[in-house]
Amino acid sequence: MISPLLVLAILGADFVQQEFDGVIPYEPAPYGTPEKGKGFRLGDFNGDGASDVITKDTLLFQIDGGFPRRGQRPLPNFGGRAAGDVWGLDLYFLLADRLEVVRWSNDTWQRVLSQEMVWPRAGLITQLSSSPEENSISFATFLFDLDGQGAPEIILPGEDGVHVYRRKGPFFEPAGTLLAAVPPLTLANADNVALWPKERRVLAPPTQTRTFSFTIQERQIRLAYASPAPGGMVQHRICQYPVLTGEAGFSLGQEPALDVTSKPVPPGVNAMFLNNDDAIDLCQTQVTSMLTSTVPVPVLNVSLSTDGGETFTSIRSVTLTTTPRFADMNGDGFLDFIGERTALFDGGLRETLLRAMSRRRLEHEVRVHLQSATKGFSNTPVFAHLFSVDLDKAPLHQSPLFMRYTRGSLLDTQGDFDANGFLDAAIQDRPDRISVYRGSQTGFDDAPYATITLPAIESFCVADLNADGRDDILADAPVPGAPDRPSRTSIYLMKGGAQ
Predict the structure, then answer these.
(1) DSSP-assigned letters across all residues of 284-329
(2) β-sheet bridge partners, residue 114
(3) Which pLDDT score, from 0 to 100, does residue 215 have?
(4) pLDDT in tens, 423-462
(5) How far apart are CA 177 and CA 129, in angstroms?
(6) Could you say which of 143, 218, 313, 498 has the lowest number of CB atoms within 10 Å?
(7) Residue 396 phi/psi, 5° resolution?
């Protein structure tokens, strides 16, 4: 049964609301990283060829292109804090002291494996151990096919390297520690310690630490880290090693297949993944004020490099948002920079104060700077689009909706709702409405392609939940008539619409 709260039909595009009473936690994907960043996972958990959704407490089976209530099942209770990942029909859950593997079969959860484990006490396992009595499920990426045999290995970072566990018979066992010598150890920042009074004085020897990130693909492990450079600078480095497989376990090749280093840069310059080449991509963000204005106007200065720091492109935006936004707007495999400009500070002091105290409508401009393989980012926007956002209260009141506007969470440019190969813009332009503007080679359409109306939307997320090539929307809002209940996630599946 389709919910009567379904709203919309524009140009043949429909969002169909699904019946769901729970909450699906989600967070935006970290820009410039390979992580998905979503608090749920997709997979075919009953082998019928359709994509299903698993949340922190519910498995939603896809039936006839949707997620009806009759296809929703609770997850098992593991009696502790768990992190989950998906491999085929199986769900793997790490707990602080054990591994649980379950599979849906014969209309119930079947335990495939329950094994006590000694994990490395770092990263994910430290988080799980911090509140072991808490019964909750989150999601992480720890399953990889490291040897190309079609079965997953469990890979977890530790203080002494990256630990690998592989299945031997019915159980998992340790199968090597990778990157045990790299990156080099560095002195950790000393915590503030009291020197006086004397009885409170504690002097501890300096500690050493090793901080890095890694990705795994096609039997290669790619390591990224920063190390100190002369003059208070840092150098970012990427090394890629082949992973060797033997009877004793996994090891690294002696020589890296890739070893690149950036130019020395200030500590505030961060390494990112903005394209698929071997050069190190860098991004620096600084928030300043426009000194020529009578009103302190916030300016976001973003400096971008796609050649390891040889050259930088600087882009300035008058915006309240402090986090840069990236998306592959034209489908060429390169992440483009999405600049944003608010009209809140247009004009002089009188106009700005009047707008902040009494106006609920804000003009918000999105400016797209494309990235090319040879020239990096364009200095000027290739195209721009002006949106109007109607707040619930004037900015001076700093309502939750306005604060979300300052964080940039009213706009999402990660979804392709009409499957035409170009990303669209989803924007919450009213307290109770999300509008979708279709994207193309030349920018966004002037009129919305589709809209959703839901009372008092608190947040939303874009994802292709049913794997039909069209992105869908998750939106959180209060439960009607139940102010004491927590908010509920509404699922809207995109159906129809011209491609």
Answers:
(1) EEEEEEETTSSS-EEEEEEEEESSTTS--EEEEEE-S--S-EEE-T
(2) 100
(3) 85
(4) 999 999 999 999 999 999 889 999 999 999 988 899 998 9
(5) 21
(6) 218
(7) -60, -25
